[in-house]
Amino acid sequence: MSAARQIVVMGVSGTGKSVIGQALAESLGLTFIEGDAFHPTANIAKMSAGTPLDDDDRRPWLTVLAGKLDANRQAGIGSVLACSALKRDYRDILRHEAPDAFFLHLDLPFDVLRDRMEKREHFMPTSLLQSQFDTLERLGADERGHVLDFDAPLPEVIAAATAAAAAA
Fold it and tell me: Domains in the chain: how many in total?
């Protein structure tokens, strides 16, 4: 696996993108990028108020994240980005700067995610979960990626994520 490998751990809110992404980066010796840390304050305020983001809200944020992937790629640094990347268009923005990016889609049932979100503190309220499911466009057959669609103990999910990323 090349050192400049770019992996995007994607999915709706509550799937564990950050936890799994960080563990994946650690296990593969890559840099972790927390996508939520780059949301502008206007996006966070909007989500905190229970209003879903639209394409115009997400595009500048995704452009910043794409720039992070590109900077790492050009510096020969591999990275794992935790980012919802819900639509193909959003993934295309990321791919524009990281053409060989591998997308690892964490896919869990709505009820499981709602329960998780109700137990955590985050700017994304549970009320926005349905809007994320409504926005989600699953990976196309022509997109480099893998779907992990099982609810299991964290070590099993991390092992499966690592195996999928290593095999790509």
Answer: 1
